[in-house]
Amino acid sequence: MVRGEALVVCSDKSMGAGITVWDMESGDHLLHIPTCASPPHGLLCLRNHFLVASQVHKHGSFGGGAIFIWPFNKPQAPLRSYPIEAIGPLSCTNDGLYLAGGAPSGNAYVWEVSSGRLLKSWRAHQKSLSCMTFSDDNSFLITGSDDGSIGIWSMISLLDVAECGNVPSFFHSWLEHQSSISGLLSTFGSSGSVLVSSSLDGTCKVWDVISGRLLRTQAYSQAISAIILDPEEQLLLSGSADGRIFINTLDIGLEENTTIISEDQPIVLSGHKGSITALSFSISGLWLISASEDCTACLWDARSWVVTRRFNHAKGQITNMVVIKRSLLLSLAENSQRVSYQPRVSLLDKYPQPTNTSRGTVALLPTYSSLEEDISNTGFCSTTSMNKQILDLEQGQTPAAIQMKVETSIENRLWATSMTKHITDMNKHLRSRLLDLMHCRLLVPSKVDFSTNGKRKKLKVSSPLLREDEPESPA
C-alpha cells in the first residue's frame, strides 16, 4: 500500500464542509480543517509547508473574494487575504516564489509569496478563467477560459518592474477548443516545452509551447472534466463527465499531426457514478487517485488498474484533491525543529504597490514558542547571548539571516529580469537598424552612364547613406 502519504480533499458546496485529510494507507481520518469551500483548481500545496485555497463566492458576484493559507504545523489558524475580486483557479511556480490566480471577470493576478506584493493584474480573457498552470521551467504562465481560449504569458514580461502598469501581450493565444477548458498540463517533448489541454467539448489537444503549433488532437464521446499524466509522462489519463477514465498513450513525435483520433481502443476505468472532478498520482507514482461528484475518491493500482480503496466524503462532492507527505502533519513537538526554517508568506495585496514605496510591516504566519521563550525574547540579552546572535547572523544561521538572503535573492532575480528585458529590447533595436541599412542599400543601386566612346562613368547618386559633405569613392 501507499506509505507515508496523505490525501487532502475539499468541496465547493459549503464553507462548513472544510478540508478533509485521510491516511492513504489505512484510510483513517487524520485531520479536518473547517471553513473552506474551494472552486475547481482552487487548492494547492505551497513549498511543502502550506495549503492554499481560494474560496467560493456567490454566483454572479465579483466581490468578496478570499484566499486562505494554512501552515501545516497549525492548520486551524489560516492567513486570510482578500483580493479585490473573487479568485477561482490558483497555481504556483515550482519554487513557490510566485502565486497566480484567475477571476470570473477574466482578470489574472500574480503575487510574490514572501512579501504578498501584487506584481501584475490584467485582463487575460474575455470570460471567466477556469484553470491555470506554470510551465515546467516557470518561464510561462498558461491560462484557460470558459470560452475555450488558452493564453500563454511570458513570466519575463509579467515580472518586469518597469512595465508594471502596462497590459502584457500574449506569447501565444489559441482558440481551438469549442467549450470551457477543464485541464492544463505542462511537460517536455522532443522539441521542448509541451502543453496538454482538455475541454468540455470532449477533446484533448497537445501543443508546442514555443512554436505555437497544434501537434495532436484526441477526441472522446464524453466531455473531459479532468486530466493527468503518469509519472513517466507516457500516458494521458482523461476523466469524463460520465465517470469513466480513459487511458491513452501520449505520442508526441517530431512531426506535426493534428489529425483527430476518435476513441478507438483506450484503456477504460469505471469506478465512479458521477463526473470525474480531479485526478492525481501518489508521490511514489504507484497509485492513481480519482475524485468524483459522487462524493467518493478511488485509489487505483497503477499496474493492474484495480480499485484498492475507496474514500467516502460525507460532506459533499469532492472538487479539489492534493497528495502530500504524511510527515507534513506531524505533531507540534515533532515539528519544532522545522518551524524555524519555515518559508515566509505574507498577506496578499489587494492593489498593486509602487515599487519605491516602503512595504511597512509584513504579516507573517504564526510561529510557536513557549511562554519562557516569549519572556526571554522581550527582555534584555546577556553579552554572551548577543555575541552568539551576532555570530549566527554573520554565518547566516538565524531565521532573520535566512529571510534576508531570500529577500536579496528575490531582488537580484527582479534586477536580472529587468536587465534581460533591456538587453532583449536593445538586440531588437540593433536588428531593426541593420535591416533598415540593408534595405536602403538594396533600394539605391549605383547608376552607370555609358558614353558614346564606350567608356563607363559612374554618376553621382543621392543616397540617405551618403552625407553631402562626404566625397564619393573613386570609380
TrEMBL record:
One of its GO terms (cellular component) is rixosome complex. It comes from Macleaya cordata (Five-seeded plume-poppy). This is WD40 repeat. It comes from the Eukaryota. One of its GO terms (biological process) is rRNA processing. Transmembrane segments: none annotated. Residues 455-475 are annotated as: Disordered. Keywords: Repeat, WD repeat. WD repeats lie at residues 122-155, 188-217, 269-304. Pfam families: WD40. Coiled coil: none annotated.
